[in-house]
Write the structure tokens for this entry.
Amino acid sequence: MILIHPPIVKPCEPPAGIAKLSGSLKRQGVKCTVLDANLEGILSLLNWSAARDVPQRPSDRWTDRACHHLDSNMKLLTSRHGYGHMDRYKRAVRDVNRVLEVSTSHCNVRLSLSNYLDRAHSPVRSTDLMRVAEIPEENPFFPYFSKRLMDLLDKECPAMIGFSLNYLSQALCTFAMIGFLKLAHPHLHIILGGGLVTSWIRNPGWSNPFKGLVDDFVAGPGEEPLLSILGITSPGGQDSPDDAILTEEGYFSPGTILPYSASSGCYWNQCSCCPEKAERNPYRPVSVEGMIADIRTLIVKTKPVLVHLLDNAVSPVHLEAIADRPFGAPWYGFARISPHLADLDFCIALRRSGCVMLQLGVESGDQGVLDDMRKGFDLEKASIVLKNLKKAGIAAYAYFLFGTPTETLEKARKTLAFAVRHSDQIDFLNLAIFNLPAYGPDAPKLQTGDFYEGDLSLYRNFLHPHGWDRHHVREFVNREFRKHPAIIPILRKTPPMFTSNHAPFFAMRP
């Protein structure tokens, strides 16, 4: 079997989901080959673009400089000293991104290191996904994947090929690759899983629009369903990720990043704004003993410079275990604002365990908004947590969300005031505008309409009860929040493109 991680997602660490699937298959004696087509495809386009073979490539000083310095910029992004100076880092990222961007200057696609936009086709319309499957040669990655896939098919002779589709930015490329495979080998068995596919399938109105192209769909954790498709009864127990995948080189980071999920779903699972709740995804944690043993073993084998805990929120039970039994490497991940983090001694213990950064969904500086979102904490506790993390030496990557149904301009300004008061404790910022989950608990209470024109859209537009529409929200965020003198320095510290994936390396600087 071949498992494929398709373009485009940020190419900074190995695909954890596929590593887990591969580990499960190999445990049962199934021969499995993994292809990170995202990393390989991006590197292929960068090298082609820099070689001046691109039709209609712009000829300007920025493009010429970016192409000329591609190798040196890549070396900078993959070495530790490249993260010693933010301005130099930003220039390298933007120059590398420019080379990738101009690789599609001759077609309708706009690429970046973190996104894929097609002016002619939408990833939320099934008819468009079926259309790109019919014309795979128009995909900018076609010169890469057409040869790579045929070579793999000739070498491995797989019975099945699985694609891990997690983000909208991967959808069009995924279906172009599936279309190419089906045109070349009509009877090849195609399996489609991943986070985005799970979201599609969990929607109440789901009806498979890809008949004849995709043979099987997998929702949620894929180990047991995949074994079932192969006719193998899962023996149960915990499967460790395939460490061979996690030691692959070439990622855009200063050493190996070890991604690891200690759970699927969310242990809190009450936030009204969260797709996990809307999709009713169950919480499935790895045992404490299993997590510690897994990560320690993988650290010995992969020698990572950083461990990335991928959980929606690392549970207090897992945090306690890490604090008590450090696994011997720097780490970061999402955590909820909780009584544990309101304890300074506990935060200090986390720092001693190797925690260099925590991502926190603060969301709002108005208590009423937080209560309506069912976040389960108060602003006083959020304030204490931010101060504790600062004292403990753990960087805080704070997430704020604007435009929720009960927010107003006045309440949004309270969020700005909260961020300003804590600007010394906030190291990095993520500012987002609320998207209403199509099947979330708030949708029936609001007057809604299409968010994207497409049968696969996961969100709904809505008439804001207080007139606080997306235009006004965006205007506030861009003109007022981002322009505040206390906020500007934080935004300047936030890494472009790679954002939270690279932020820990700046938090780790001496």
Notes: The first helix runs from residue 16 to 27. The mean pLDDT is 94. The chain has two domains: 2-57+103-229, 253-507.
